[in-house]
């Protein structure tokens, strides 16, 4: 269980931070960047929840909790014999996202154009969250080129961006409909 009695420690004042295994790295480290972007995504989902109710709010709360798991996973480097069992993202978390994507997408109209990130307030914020999820995935992939990571994290973030896309489409279906891209519409007379 986490117990926070003091919020500031001054240990990061020189530009370094502690990882989940106790080692210290620069705050510009790829690992810190990856879990920092996951944290940003989690905060953005909190904004999405302001426009959500019922099942959508519950689903986003579940994702927020899972994103803490993702952050903890990324924060703790892979080790052969760790002194404690690190928290790792698991395949059932990815499978839940896939099942939800399939369930929601089954009720949506087939797309005949790309969707602009717009529409209802909920959809617009979910589209924004989708783009941050893609950045979290890219940052985690960059980390994976420099250090071993749990590959399930990459699958989770990839599915999460897809999930946020179908959630945005669902939010627009319930409001005013998707805003579709009109290719070349403003190229000239």
Automatic annotation (TrEMBL):
Keywords per UniProt: ATP-binding, Cobalamin biosynthesis, Nucleotide-binding, Transferase
InterPro entries: CblAdoTrfase-like (IPR016030), CblAdoTrfase-like_sf (IPR036451), PduO-typ (IPR029499)
Coiled coil: none
Enzyme class name: transferase
Domain named Cobalamin adenosyltransferase-like: residues: 7-170
Highest taxon of the lineage: Bacteria
Keyword Ion transport: no
Catalytic activities: 2 cob(II)yrinate a,c diamide + reduced [electron-transfer flavoprotein] + 2 ATP = 2 adenosylcob(III)yrinate a,c-diamide + 2 triphosphate + oxidized [electron-transfer flavoprotein] + 3 H(+); 2 cob(II)alamin + reduced [electron-transfer flavoprotein] + 2 ATP = 2 adenosylcob(III)alamin + 2 triphosphate + oxidized [electron-transfer flavoprotein] + 3 H(+)
Database matches in Pfam families: Cob_adeno_trans
Membrane-spanning intervals of the chain: none
Pathway field: Cofactor biosynthesis; adenosylcobalamin biosynthesis; adenosylcobalamin from cob(II)yrinate a,c-diamide: step 2/7
Entry EC no(s): 2.5.1.17
Any one GO MF annotation of this record: corrinoid adenosyltransferase activity
Assigned protein family: Belongs to the Cob(I)alamin adenosyltransferase family.
PANTHER family documented for this protein: CORRINOID ADENOSYLTRANSFERASE, CORRINOID ADENOSYLTRANSFERASE MMAB
Name assigned to this protein: Corrinoid adenosyltransferase
Species of origin: Spiribacter pallidus
Phylogenetic classification of the source organism: Bacteria, Pseudomonadati, Pseudomonadota, Gammaproteobacteria, Chromatiales
């Amino acid at each position: 269980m986490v117990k926070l009695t003091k919020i500031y420690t001054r240990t990061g004042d020189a530009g370094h931070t502690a990882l989940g295994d106790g080692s210290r790295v620069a705050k510009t480290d790829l690992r810190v960047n990856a879990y920092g972007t996951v944290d940003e995504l989690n905060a953005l989902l909190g904004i999405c929840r302001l426009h959500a109710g019922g099942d959508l709010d519950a689903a986003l709360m579940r994702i927020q909790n899972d994103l803490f798991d993702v952050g903890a996973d990324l924060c703790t480097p892979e080790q052969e014999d760790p002194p404690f069992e690190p928290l790792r993202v698991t395949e059932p978390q990815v499978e839940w996202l896939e099942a939800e994507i399939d369930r929601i997408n089954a009720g949506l109209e087939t797309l005949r154009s790309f969707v602009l990130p717009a529409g209802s307030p909920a959809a617009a914020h979910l589209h924004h969250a989708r783009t941050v999820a893609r950045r979290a995935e890219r940052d985690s992939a960059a980390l994976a080129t420099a250090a071993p990571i749990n590959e399930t994290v990459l699958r989770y973030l990839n599915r999460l961006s897809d999930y946020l896309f179908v959630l945005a489409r669902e939010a627009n279906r319930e409001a005013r409909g998707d805003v579709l891209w009109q290719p070349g519409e403003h190229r000239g007379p």
